[in-house]
Amino acid sequence: MVVSGLSGAGKTAAAKLFEDLGYTVVDNLPGELLPDLAELVSSEPDRFARVAIVLDVRAGDAPLAFAAMRGALEGRGIKPQVFFLDARDEVLIRRFSETRHRHPLADQRGIASSIAEERRLLASVQDEADVVLDTSDLSLRELRERIFSQLGDTPEPEQLAIQLISFGFKYGVPLEADLVFDVRFMQNPHYIPELRQLSGLTEAVRRYVLGQPVTRRFLDFLDEFLAFVIPAYVSEGKTRLTIAIGCTGGYHRSIAIAEALAEHLRQKKLGPVAVFHRELDRA
Fold it and tell me: Which of 128, 207, 218, 232 is most solvent-facing, going by the fewest CB within 10 Å?
């Protein structure tokens, strides 16, 4: 595994989670030593069957170090899975303020400018990542679930690993989303007293949402759209697709639709499908 991302986005927490899984974690290794690490990993596969490498701007030229590391591994027959952790700027600023840690690019410009520069430097690494996680609103438990759900989730050739995220627009759109669908046009179970406290995972809410004619028509449109774009994504070399389904609070309609879509996609066997309900714990 290669773990990258913005400073303050949770790479240290992710590294500890990998340690809990028995991974050897290598953090903040100078870029010049990364090819030597790749040689060590490939020469002792039993000893280093599980390795997580944290690679970010501290390595110097991060895109160059990342390319060298990935090339060294793949040249030895090892295809790494790349995780990129991101978060909203205001969240990163708050985290640095609370912890009083120094940003690795800190200078006289201030923390906001340092974050902007780090985004620019890591943009190419993020583009090549297999999994992009927005940690802005994730608890440690939720981060663990998101990482664990993606481990080893490698699609076969001509397949796409699909991640579905239900969310509430009032809390912001997930940064990692490739496609975003707004289902706020459907009737809201929130205004039905007996359904208000129930989530979209319950059968009662599911029947209410999926039983609407407008919902069935939307799902038909969505099925036709995905049948068109998924083969196109695969042909362009994309291996992962993150689809976000949003309603107002992310507790009723978006959850029910995400679950229904996941079930449908699994039946089609287009590739591995994972589902995450971002706002479920807010209730």
Answer: 232
For 242, the 3-state DSSP assignment is strand
Closest Cα partner for 215 from 188, 233, 242, 191? 188
CA distance 109 to 35: 34
Whether residue 160 contacts residue 230, with contact meaning beta carbons closer than 8 Å, is answered with yes
Q: What interhelical angle do 89-99 and 111-128 show, nearest 10?
A: 120
Beta-ladder partners of 82: 2
2-150, superfamily in CATH? P-loop containing nucleotide triphosphate hydrolases (3.40.50.300)
pLDDT digits (tens, 9 = 90+) for 206-260: 999 999 999 999 999 999 999 999 988 888 777 788 999 999 999 999 999 999 9
Residue 9 and residue 84: Cα distance in Å, rounded? 9
Residue 244: in which H helix or E strand, if any? strand 240-247
pTM across the whole model: 0.66
> Which H helix or E strand runs over 91?
helix 89-99
CB 238 within 8 A of CB 246: no
Give the separation between CA 175 and CA 92, rounded to whole angstroms. Answer: 14
CB 174 within 8 A of CB 135: no
Domains of the chain: which residue ranges? 2-150, 161-282
Instruction: Kindly list the distances between the CA atom of residue 2 and the CA atoms of 128, 134, 261, 266, 271, in Å, as whole numbers in the listed order.
Output: 11, 17, 30, 28, 22
User: Count of alpha carbons within 13 Å of 220, Cβ hemisphere only?
Assistant: 6
| CB-count burial class (<10 Å; 0-12, 13-18, 19+) for 216 | exposed
Determine the average pLDDT of the residues in 89-107: 85
Please provide residue 11's backbone torsions phi and psi, each rounded to the nearest 5 degrees. -65, -35
Distance CA 88, CA 134 (A): 8
